[in-house]
């Protein structure tokens, strides 16, 4: 059974491990060196300190995924627009965890006052694009060859959905 709950500070090591796998093996993130648990502890504190949503999926007591929303850009006029980030542990992929996380994040971001959500998808990662499309996002832009990882140029895809009722 998968439970979605707010992040806790002690989730930082599990989040670091999930993200490290994606950094080292995939193109969804354009990071090339995975940050450690101390970095994630600071990030958790910063995001939750602003009352923005940061959620984890827990399966049988283990963190199997996480997601959060932050203001899309720092300038004041962007305040109603957030960017989501979502990652699922590699051995838990394909079990519906991403859909549950993103659905809960959409609801939490709306309650936090955001009106639009943007997904910035590195490498045009097909699974991430499909997940976002299932939850009402549409592609609104593409930066061709904006990234370079694993010896190849990668697109960055922007998807967006309204959070307004």
Walkthrough of the structure:
The chain is α+β, with helices and mostly antiparallel strands and 165 residues long. It has a single domain (2-162), classed as Gcn5-related N-acetyltransferase (GNAT) (Aminopeptidase, 3-Layer(aba) Sandwich), CATH 3.40.630.30. It is 31% helix and 36% strand. The protein has a 7-stranded mixed β-sheet with strand order 1-2-3-4-5-7-6, with helices on both faces. A hairpin with a 2-residue loop joins strand 6 (138-149) and strand 7 (152-162). The chain starts with a strand and ends with a strand.
Search tags:
Aminopeptidase; 165 residues; seven-stranded mixed beta sheet; globular; 4 helices; 7 strands; 31% helix; 36% strand; alpha+beta
Number of E strands: 7
Q: What sort of overall outline do the alpha carbons produce when their principal axes are compared? A: globular
Question: Mind telling me the C-alpha Rg?
Answer: 15 Å
The CATH architecture can be named as: 3-Layer(aba) Sandwich
Taking strands numbered 1, 2, ... along the chain, how are they ordered across the largest sheet?
1-2-3-4-5-7-6
Determine the N-to-C terminus distance: 29 Å
Tally of individual domains: 1
């Amino acid at each position: 059974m998968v439970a979605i709950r707010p992040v806790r500070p002690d989730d930082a090591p599990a989040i670091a491990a999930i993200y490290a796998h994606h950094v080292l093996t995939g193109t969804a993130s354009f990071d090339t060196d995975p940050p450690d648990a101390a970095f994630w502890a600071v990030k958790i504190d910063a995001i939750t300190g602003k009352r923005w949503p940061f959620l984890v999926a827990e399966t049988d007591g283990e963190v199997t995924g996480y997601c959060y929303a932050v203001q899309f850009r720092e300038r004041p006029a962007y305040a109603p627009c957030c960017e989501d980030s979502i990652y699922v542990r590699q051995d838990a992929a394909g079990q519906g965890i991403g859909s549950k996380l993103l659905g809960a994040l959409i609801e939490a971001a709306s309650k936090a006052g955001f009106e639009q959500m943007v997904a910035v998808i590195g490498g045009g990662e097909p699974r991430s694009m499909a997940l976002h499309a299932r939850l009402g996002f549409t592609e609104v832009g593409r930066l061709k060859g904006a990234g370079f990882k694993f010896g190849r140029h990668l697109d960055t895809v922007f998807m967006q959905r309204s959070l307004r009722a």
